[in-house]
């Protein structure tokens, strides 16, 4: 049974808002109509909301755009006759994927005129994300940047197959390709990612230890200590979005990166504070300037050393650092 437009709008705010408040007050999954009856469409959407957000975010690298995709998904879902849907989860993932693909192509045009490097929007993630090694790896800043090098269709196929383990037939329906074409795309995307993903597995403990050593070196101005945790070919990327000052081009080489980091800290030492946080499933540093969030610094580890530093300063990308985001697969 389809909802009327007014009923759909009434539930839109509930199902497309962030999940933190609903989980705290226990209302998730209990949306009801005026007579107290549970609405199946709303309940199903709320049940799978975290999964759908994760799909959209991994495809887009933007939490704000992922939220917009969820809103578009909900509006389409609200008009579906549920009696005709065999697998509601798969149907919702299919809608989300199609909307994310449309958004991804638009986002690509925006990136072309972006000032400086474009980095994924960082998320303050819940502890359970780090416990799911495959999920944490898939949403890490390093992997999200690797996904940026895929075509939109390759990215959708890779995410749905490798992260969410969907069958080729399901993916084919979502991306409007034949199963055979999807298999070929998956093979191509898998090889592309494998050649660019971080080398070697770094445990959560090892990454925390490396982050702590990095923080100590930066806070104490210890150049050698910083060089000890940086790989010789370390690269620093900065994203200020033309709003905040940031490096416009990649800074390459451990010595250049270390001296730039220490120089920036010394200039603002009295006003800056650094602290650890769980960002996109991995330990990262958050930098506060005069008590206000200024920068999120995520790191990439290869063979135990820091090879990538991703400094997000664009304030429009820091809104999801004020609350934890729950991700699911």
Strand content: 5-15%
How are strands sequenced across the largest beta sheet? 2-1-6-5-4-3
Q: What is the number of strand segments?
A: 6
Largest beta sheet, briefly?
A: 6 strands, mixed
* Radius of gyration over all CA atoms, rounded: 21 Å
Separate helix tally: 14
Going by helix content, strand content and strand pairing, the class is alpha+beta
Identify low-pLDDT runs: 19-31
Residue share in helix: 40-55%
Report the order of strands and helices. Answer: HHHHHHHHHHHHHEEHEEEE
Global geometry? globular
Distance between the termini: 28 Å
Walk me through the structure:
It is a single chain. The two termini are 28 Å apart. It contains 14 helices and six strands. It has a six-stranded mixed β-sheet. A hairpin with a 2-residue loop joins strand 3 and strand 4. The relative contact order is 0.14. The protein is globular and about 65 Å long. The model is unreliable at 19-31 (pLDDT under 50). It is α+β, with helices and mostly antiparallel strands. The longest helix has 25 residues, at 88-112.
What's the quick description here?
With 329 residues, the protein is α+β, with helices and mostly antiparallel strands. It is 52% helix and 14% strand.
Give the topology, please.
Layout: H1 5-16, H2 20-25, H3 40-60, H4 63-77, H5 88-112, H6 127-131, H7 133-139, H8 141-147, H9 152-163, H10 168-175, H11 179-194, H12 204-220, H13 223-229, E1 230-239, E2 251-252, H14 254-267, E3 272-279, E4 282-289, E5 292-302, E6 305-312
Parallel strand pairs: 1-6
Antiparallel strand pairs: 1-2, 3-4, 4-5, 5-6
Helix pairs in contact: 1-4, 3-4, 3-5, 4-5, 5-10, 9-11, 10-11, 12-13
């Amino acid at each position: 049974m389809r909802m009327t437009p007014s009923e759909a709008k009434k539930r839109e705010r509930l199902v497309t808002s962030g999940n933190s408040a609903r989980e705290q007050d226990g209302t998730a999954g209990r949306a009801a109509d005026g007579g107290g009856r549970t609405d199946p469409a709303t309940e199903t959407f709320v049940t799978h909301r975290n999964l759908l957000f994760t799909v959209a975010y991994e495809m887009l690298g933007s939490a704000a755009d992922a939220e917009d995709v969820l809103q578009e998904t909900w509006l389409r879902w609200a008009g579906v006759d549920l009696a005709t849907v065999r697998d509601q989860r798969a149907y919702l993932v299919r809608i989300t994927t199609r909307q994310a693909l449309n958004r991804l192509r638009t986002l690509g045009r925006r990136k072309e005129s972006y000032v400086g490097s474009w980095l994924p929007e960082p998320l303050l993630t819940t502890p359970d994300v780090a416990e799911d090694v495959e999920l944490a790896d898939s949403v890490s800043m390093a992997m999200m940047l690797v996904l940026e090098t895929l075509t939109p269709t390759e990215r959708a196929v890779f995410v749905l197959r490798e992260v969410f383990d969907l069958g080729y037939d399901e993916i084919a329906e979502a991306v409007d390709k034949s199963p055979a074409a999807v298999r070929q795309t998956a093979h191509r995307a898998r090889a592309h990612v494998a050649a660019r993903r971080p080398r070697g597995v770094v445990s959560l403990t090892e990454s925390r230890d490396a982050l702590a050593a990095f923080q100590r070196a930066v806070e104490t101005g210890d150049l050698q200590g910083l060089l000890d945790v940086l790989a010789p070919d370390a690269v620093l990327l900065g994203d200020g979005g033309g709003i905040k000052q940031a490096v416009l081009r990649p800074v390459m080489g451990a010595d250049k990166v270390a001296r730039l980091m220490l120089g920036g800290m010394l200039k603002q030492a009295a006003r800056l504070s650094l602290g650890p946080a769980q960002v996109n499933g991995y330990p990262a540093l958050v930098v506060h300037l005069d008590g206000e969030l200024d920068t999120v610094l995520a790191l990439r580890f290869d063979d135990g050393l820091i090879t990538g530093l991703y400094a997000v300063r664009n304030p429009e990308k820091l809104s999801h650092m004020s609350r934890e985001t729950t991700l699911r697969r």
